[in-house]
Amino acid sequence: MNRFQFVADHQARFGVKRLCQVLQIARSSFYYWRATAGHRAAREAADAALATRIRAVQARHDGTYGAPRITAELQDGGLAVNRKKVARVMRAHRIAGLRLRRRVQTTITDPAAVKAPDLISRDFTAPAINQRYVGDITYLPIGEGGFLYLATVIDLHSRRLAGWAIADHMRTGLVIDALHAARRTRSSLDGAIFHSDHGAQYTSRDFATACADAGVRQSMAKIGSSADNALAESFNATFKRETLQGRNAFTDVREARLASFRWLHRYNTVRRHSRLGHQSPINYENNTLATPATLAPAA
Fold this sequence. Notes:
single chain, about 300 residues, alpha/beta, 11 helices
């Protein structure tokens, strides 16, 4: 209970002047508080209604959205509301999106492998689609100690997941399958740059051959520098945060594959990206470039 409410509840017995003196508040402030009671009640009712709509957005997106994406969703639904108000109501009603979990290192380097130069230099942008890509491998924990592995190919212009593959191993074939999926999505990757870390899969002769066959120029981060492939690693962290929902592992392989496919599809077609004006990657491409909106099947 705030002090103004205390005065209102006890003024008949003790008087407003005495109570305000004891509580060290100005009488004018109390009278202003009482005069604006109707406005506050209306605002609280409006906030409660907004909180209901926010929870509905959260439910549709598995509880993953924070204030910026929720604001964009509400605005697209015809509600005139800004991010600060959404954030305030979320705090007041204890509604929160998921936070990043601690990242786990999975890159295994081959010191003897031939390294490609860094053609990205931490510039994770591209002037048009199908020019520059980044990729990485992340693990999907299964039950009591098992794993699946996800390899990705992400367009730096639209942030679209152009290709991906999931397997129960981290052999070179996994990253080649992801590259082939991106090639099917774009029809051709000729002249594009693909940037990765120094994982043994990416420095292998087989992957170099696959890149050459596709007309792709390889680019690699500095050894031990996660910032040089930060966009791919950020994607992986978001993927696991939003699919695992705070759990340590998926129940089994089937759940891991279904949850992954669902999220990866939603990432491209529904999930809003702040850099794209809170559009999904495929909506961004369709709205600005009129490109096909299909995702190549995963290996």
